[in-house]
Amino acid sequence: MKNSETSSESAHGQSTALANRAVPKERFERESADLHWLAAVILGGEQHVEQCLWDAIRLAEHGGFVAPEWLEHFDQRVTVRTAVDKIRAEIQTIAGNYPRKSDAATMVHALSETERRVLRSIEAKKIGRSCNALERATLILYGYLGFSVQDCALLLDCCRSVIEPACARALQNVVDKGLGAEIAEHHVDGFRASEVPT
To answer: Would residue 168 count as lying in a domain?
Structure first.
């Protein structure tokens, strides 16, 4: 009797593990266009995006159990992580010399749903031509996905004081280049061009 219970528990554990691996893959397939855009913005273009997404799926499949409340953003998190990993050295080089946040500067909080839709409508390669690697990464992590400054700094392995200025500069570049005129019209919360460090 004990052997059949153990066997049953083992089979249940294996089926649960397989189900947990299937859920992220299904989400990746369903959200592929958005995940592709996230990776392309961080990477600055289409090069390496497919490899990045493939690496993200493998990471998700082998990551073990994912709590239901984390599933909604799990695919985004592993996608941005794999994208950042591909350009980490470039991000850190830029971050080492980037202007730090001043006491006078104000900064965006996470973008509103309307602002996110406007930003999402801009081609990744256009953002890539307007922003450096640090700015692109903070635009996605801090502005678009709403990661905290601390989470951004940990993921990018850089100083916390560059996160807000880099995101502000990225938004300023998007507005200056006319890529997101509607972002300016919707008054990005806390974002003032005159207070962005140069």
So the answer is: yes
